[in-house]
Amino acid sequence: MEEIYERLNEVFRDIFDDDTIEVNDSTTADDIEDWDSLNHITLIDAVESEFGVRFTMGEVSGMKNVGEMAEIIKERGKKL
Predict the structure, then answer these.
(1) How far is CA 66 from CA 9, 43, 77, 78, in A?
(2) Burial class (CB in 10 A: 0-12, 13-18, 19+), 61
(3) pTM given for the model
(4) What pLDDT is stored for residue 48 in this prediction?
(5) Count of Cβ atoms closer than 10 Å to residue 55 Cβ
(6) Distance CA 53, CA 32 (A)
(7) Residue 32 pLDDT
(8) What is the torsional sign of CA 13, 27, 41, 63?
């Protein structure tokens, strides 16, 4: 999981143009100033590209925090 979070940090820093971002399992959109609905779409696309996964619409709309995103990535990684 540590590698997943390191890679997620890089994606978040790139999308939100903020080198100070440190995401963890409880990080939500409320914790990052520019995380709005448009940036959310860009973020999901970037995460999918980085990890070679595709989230379902249900997963995207149901994710409550970065921890849930990381868990999905971890599970998908086992199938690759």
Answers:
(1) 10, 11, 16, 19
(2) exposed
(3) 0.94
(4) 97
(5) 19
(6) 23
(7) 97
(8) positive
Tokens of 58: 């249900």
Task: Answer yes or no: is pLDDT of 80 > 70.
Answer: no
Q: Which amino acid is at 70?
A: A
Of 26, 3, 21, 79, the residue nearest 43 (C-alpha):
21
The angle that helices 37-51 and 2-16 make with each other, rounded to 10 degrees, is 140
Number of C-beta neighbours around residue 23 at 10 A: 20
Q: pLDDT tens for residues 36-75?
A: 999 999 999 999 999 999 999 999 999 999 999 999 999 9
